[in-house]
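Give me structure tokens for this 110-residue protein.
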Amino acid sequence: PLLVEFVKRRVFHLSRGDDMLTRTTTSTMVFRRPFHIAGIDHAFPAGSYEVVTEEEQLDGITFLAYRRLQTYIYRRSTGDRLGLEPTYDVDPEDLAAALAQDVIEQELPA
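Here you go.
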């Protein structure tokens, strides 16, 4: 069976700084196999990753809209490595391509 896990949690953290309203959305992606992301020179191990997207509210328009400022990914720390996992700034399209490749590789015969 095909196993894909992408849990989007709408965990918003709204803040106002420099007269700009921003929000942060946190998601979890689970990769079943090691994967690569364009622009990063090493493979990531399989596992669960937190994906954080920061956006700013656009002013001066008649409807509510946001512009993405940054998306980054990190692996939750476990055991004796607690707090030592780095974060990586990623393009959401590159991240989606890595997840799609993970799905394709799951469908290939072992």
